[in-house]
Amino acid sequence: MFSLAAEGTILIGGHNMGASKKWRNLQADPKLAFVVDDVVSFRSWKARFVEIRGRAELLDGATARRGIQFRGDPHPPGEDLQLRGGSVSATVRLSPWA
Questions:
Q1: How far apart are CA 97 and CA 10, in angstroms?
Q2: How confident is the model over 31-77, as pLDDT tens digits?
Q3: How many domains is the chain partitioned into structurally?
């Protein structure tokens, strides 16, 4: 899951993110590439994508939840988001390179 933040960064979260190998890798090296893809047509299988590269900032606890709001999400910013039995307790903030 991801959300665009007001300051031009991207917040990336997910179930148990703080315990993931991705999280540990970013602790060692904060360079990050993030891909967003979309299928334009299933008939002729046309897909498109954008890759965003930048520096990761690891956020945890209340800081991870502050400001995260996904389109159509009824939870106000700062409230724990429940995801398949867990909640968002860690988030990666991606600051794209110019």
A1: 12
A2: 999 998 999 888 998 999 999 999 999 887 655 554 444 444 544 44
A3: 1
Which DSSP string do the residues of 25-64 spell out, in sequence order? HHHH--EEEEEEEEEEETTTTEEEEEEEEEEEEEEETHHH
Q: How far apart are CA 20 and CA 41, in angstroms?
A: 33
Residue 22 carries which DSSP code? H
CA distance 16 to 43: 36
Say how far apart CA 51 and CA 71 lie, in whole Å. Answer: 21
**In terms of residue numbers, what domain contains 37?**
2-96
